[in-house]
Amino acid sequence: MNLIDHLRTEARLAPESGISAVANRGRGRPGVIPLWVGEGDLPTPAFIADAAAHALQGGETFYTWQRGIPDLREALARYYGRHFGRAFAAEEFLVTGGGMQAIQLALQATAGAGDEVIYLAPAWPNFPGAAGVAGAKPVPVQLDFGDNGRSWGWSCDVGRIEKAVTPKTRAIFFNSPSNPTGWTADCDTLKAVLDLARRHDLWIIADEIYALFHYGGGRAASFLDIMEPDDRILFVNTFSKNWAMTGWRIGWLKVHPSLQQTFESLIQYSTSGVAQFMQRGAIAALDKGDGLIFEQVERAQKARDLVGDILAGTGRAHFAVPPGAFYLFFSVDGVRDSREAAFRILDEANVGLAPGSAFGGEGFFRLCFHRRLDQVEEAANRLAEWIGKL
Predict the structure, then answer these.
(1) What is the mean pLDDT of residues 220-248?
(2) Residue 242: which residues within 8 A CB-CB, separation 6 or more?
(3) Which of 47, 69, 119, 277 has the fewest Cβ atoms surrounding its Cβ within 10 A?
(4) Full-prediction pTM beyond 0.90?
């Protein structure tokens, strides 16, 4: 008997992550420079870890508020007030088990079996994967990549998004700044997408996780800059990127206050909440961590420019300089199968990249440059040497 045949079709067809396939092969390899996953190389700072440890030692280990402890939700309101220039209420926020759970809850609330959800591709594979597991059909709309005569760039055709809308469409998943391309929507694009969603009565699931990882000065444009209070937008976010907390698995949702109880119930029937001592660490991150974010962004920009200059010097690597996030999504002349090439690069150059095929961008690679400059420089030089031998 093959037990797998008796599972739900959606579970059986959940794709293996192309990112994990390379990472699993390279983990622990001597001398490898691991640029395959979306995290930096800094451990969580002491001011965050100490706050969590103090709470743990103080006995904050019991069941707690499923939507998040009041102190953390108030800290989220303060954080948004600082960065978005207006007042927010604690009742707009719920704490989740990472950004991934925030996405899953948003999907559970808006789409299910037989429904469709539109997303921009290339995209982080966890979103279409999660939509498929939920029974919904993920519908990709491709960003355009081309040379405008001066430089390469990504662009979004909102008309193409509208053409993908059908009677079954329930939501648009919109990630800006983008993982993996770094493409970042301007206010005009956000307004056009919001107008489209209003016309077709669609939800927007807004992934603005990298809003502060923006290299143009200040944060990236947000739907919060243009929306009305009753617009159907669910914001998903995480503590992972801004504060070096990837392993903590803690994130949040920002929703209209009228949706609080619904999402609390969804949390109840999934994880029943996030550990209270972890939430104490998250409060410290929000209230004391703005300087950390700015330092990380400054370092990431230097790494971006460094790796870009080295790969551009090969004359065979093509990419758009990313205005946001911390990834370089690049192609190489003559490379068609990015998965096979990612394994070759791992074996021959000892550099770990994520294959573009994992994101719906065959022929590309994603390189996370959010690491020490010396590591990024060494990795880029190894890649340049590998490219030179093709």
Answers:
(1) 98
(2) 212, 213, 285, 289, 292, 293, 296
(3) 47
(4) yes
